[in-house]
């Protein structure tokens, strides 16, 4: 008995000292040891690297390739959705009904593009990330993708689309490119843009950070500097990532949180009425128009509050999206006549049409 007790004590001491040695080794590793070798820039790489560092600061001596990043995103998404399900439970009958409804209402996936760039997209047979454009196009597009988002999650390696708004977001261009639902199999999403995340979630001066990068200067590395972007920011951002199999749940859970947090004002009552209308709406286009109403100018604060979006996702796709995923390309009536004369448009004429009336 005494020998066994002594063995247990020795084992405990060994385990403790071994754990301490591992911790010390991780904390005192030289910069040469902890800095990973230069790897190919990939969409999501900075975020995956942060999550890997969160579980161990010692180097893993394995590359973060595209396949590994995708597998990590699937694991992380599953955990995030499981946490939502835990913290939201139990769902009310109407909340459960919305979740079931969204499963059968695939959200619109829309890319917006400026007309001046459409011809190049048709010529190249797809949408390119900024990095791929710079490598392959004679005249790369004038992108709206902020350099700050590239620092955050590798935005220059992504093609973007909105998930939810029936006609996408006009601020990204006047041409509407609608995608097949199957395009989601190649992508991942977050409930906001990187700029919004840094400004509204992390409460940092995103515009100043972007201006600094746009001027050709790097962001400061000191964690106490409000213009820095580092490990904590990327780690926080990583918890918002959802891969395609969870998009419907992510949108439903956003809506449930919005519903639960509506106040008892007139605008809150109107938003609740819109929620109820969604539950009985059978037309997918009308459903998503209720879910995230198009922006209107000149509304009162009360009317604006009544039109609060119930959810949104910004999709990111690595590197390139083929025209095989495109269901339609929509332009203004004036632009349509010109597009039809382009040789590059010939293979896609059946998919090129006029935008819905009243849509910017």
* Count of domains: 1
User: What structural class should be given to the helix and strand makeup?
Assistant: alpha+beta
DSSP strand content: 5-15%
CA radius of gyration is 24 Å
Query: How far apart lie the N and C ends?
Result: 82 Å
Q: What is the share of helical residues?
A: 40-55%
Overall pLDDT metric: 88
Which stretches are low in confidence, meaning pLDDT under 50 for 5 or more residues running? 1-38
Order of helices and strands: HHHHHEHEHHEEEHHHEHHHHEEEHE
Task: Write up this protein.
There is one protein chain. The protein has 360 residues and is of the alpha+beta class. The chain has one domain (79-354). The protein is built from 16 helices and ten strands. The chain has helices spanning 2-28, 31-34, 45-55, 66-88, 93-103, 115-124, 130-136, 147-153, 194-201, 206-214, 231-238, 247-260, 266-280, 284-291, 301-306, 333-339, and strands at 109-113, 126-128, 158-163, 175-179, 188-190, 242-243, 313-318, 320-322, 326-331, 352-354. The strands form two sheets. It has an eight-stranded mixed sheet with strand order 6-5-7-3-1-4-9-10. The longest helix is centred in the N-terminal third of the chain and has 27 residues, at 2-28. It is globular and about 55 Å long. The N and C termini lie far apart (82 Å). The model is unreliable at 1-38 (pLDDT under 50). Keywords: Signal. Residues 1-25 form the signal peptide.
